[in-house]
Amino acid sequence: MEIPVIKEVTIPKISADDKTLSQIFSISVGHAGTVRREMDWFPKFKNGLQDNGRIVRIDAFDAYLTYRGTREWKKEKAEIDKMKGTRK
User: pTM value?
Assistant: First the structure.
């Protein structure tokens, strides 16, 4: 009976900070921070934030980037801006 030897285990990252997100998604650190803060405004993406919004689940960040800029996003953002009293 042979016993296999495991030499290396690679664990994929689940969550990341702005710097890591910028490297993963090829965007600037500032843009990653802006997107992360925007996610806090949208209830369906807020659950992707961890550690009081400083860290983001990578899958949630990817989903938000895909959603961002769509008609639904623009409509929802307009409603959020209206509730906050922000103009854009």
Answer: 0.78
